[in-house]
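Please fill in the sequence for the structure shown.

STRUCTURE ENCODING:
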């Protein structure tokens, strides 16, 4: 187990360094520069050059990269070129919204996707299975922004049950009622991603429920609920766990459209603003955080495998 942990930690560090390197290179290849964007079209070449010297953008790409790596090793993600704030502080201020949105969306994914897939697998080709296929196809086909706009129009506009946009920090106000602002975006984002989890759960359960040990469990007189949950779902859980874990990472890091539709102050909206302004340190910081998130989720998923399936042992 110790050797496995050492190998995984080394692999995680290599993955993060590769992501940082690729992101840094791609940022340098984007047309335009932040100095010209900030100063506007009326700026003189002397003013642009002076601002580049101030920000260190006049240095070679290799020098800038080494400086960025050195700062990263010290836990410094740099300062935003436009907001003149530490990138880590900016991400921390917006992380609450994205994390809560991701958790809410994941709840929708799990509540809809896993039970739906299991029920469809227990009665293949029945009306439940056919209904599931229609709903799953709709979930995979409907864009999250369109569903969000429709939900906003009905539940916020016509019925007035829920807020249409915005979010105020719960950590700052202590008001859990602010979670109402995340119900619509969480459902619109979660319903779309629930289709993948549901299809995975259905396929995995169909394979497991046809196994010989399921027939043996039924022959012993075990109740169908025990056979389905204890013997069926547990053995079918490995691919389900994989899809759910990476869906959560994708929900937290990739809710760009949803956050902009509902005007949520999250990391997704910060990505859009930073790309438009060529704010390199913020973009690189976000990509680094996303890379660490995916690497950590992958590591946690591998450990969960051993907990769920005793046959899996890491050496």
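FILLED IN BY: designer on duty
SEQUENCE:
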């Amino acid at each position: 187990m110790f050797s496995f942990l050492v190998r995984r930690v080394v692999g995680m560090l290599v993955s993060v360094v590769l992501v940082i390197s690729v992101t840094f290179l791609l940022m340098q290849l984007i047309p335009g520069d932040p100095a010209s964007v900030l100063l506007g079209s009326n700026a003189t070449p002397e003013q642009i050059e002076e601002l580049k010297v101030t920000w260190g953008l006049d240095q070679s790409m290799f020098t800038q990269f080494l400086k960025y790596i050195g700062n990263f090793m010290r836990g410094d993600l740099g300062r935003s070129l436009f907001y003149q704030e530490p990138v880590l502080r900016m991400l921390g201020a917006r992380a609450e919204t994205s994390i809560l949105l991701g958790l809410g969306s994941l709840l929708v994914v799990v509540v809809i996707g896993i039970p739906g897939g299991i029920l469809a697998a227990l009665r293949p080709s029945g009306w439940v299975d056919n209904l599931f296929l229609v709903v799953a196809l709709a979930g995979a086909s409907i864009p999250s922004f369109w569903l969000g706009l429709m939900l906003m129009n009905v539940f916020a506009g016509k019925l007035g049950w829920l807020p249409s946009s915005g979010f105020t920090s719960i950590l700052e106000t202590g008001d859990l009622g602010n979670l109402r602002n995340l119900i619509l975006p969480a459902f619109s984002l979660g319903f779309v991603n629930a289709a993948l989890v549901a299809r995975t759960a259905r396929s995995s359960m169909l394979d497991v429920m046809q196994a010989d040990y399921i027939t043996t469990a039924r022959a012993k007189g075990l109740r169908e609920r025990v056979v389905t949950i204890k013997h069926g779902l547990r053995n079918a859980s490995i691919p389900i766990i994989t899809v759910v874990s990476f869906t959560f990472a994708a929900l937290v890091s990739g809710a760009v459209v949803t956050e902009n539709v509902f005007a949520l102050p999250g990391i997704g909206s910060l990505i859009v603003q930073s790309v438009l302004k060529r704010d390199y340190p913020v973009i690189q910081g976000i990509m680094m955080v996303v890379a660490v998130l995916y690497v950590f989720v992958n590591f946690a998923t591998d450990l969960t495998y051993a907990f769920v399936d005793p046959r899996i042992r890491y050496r």
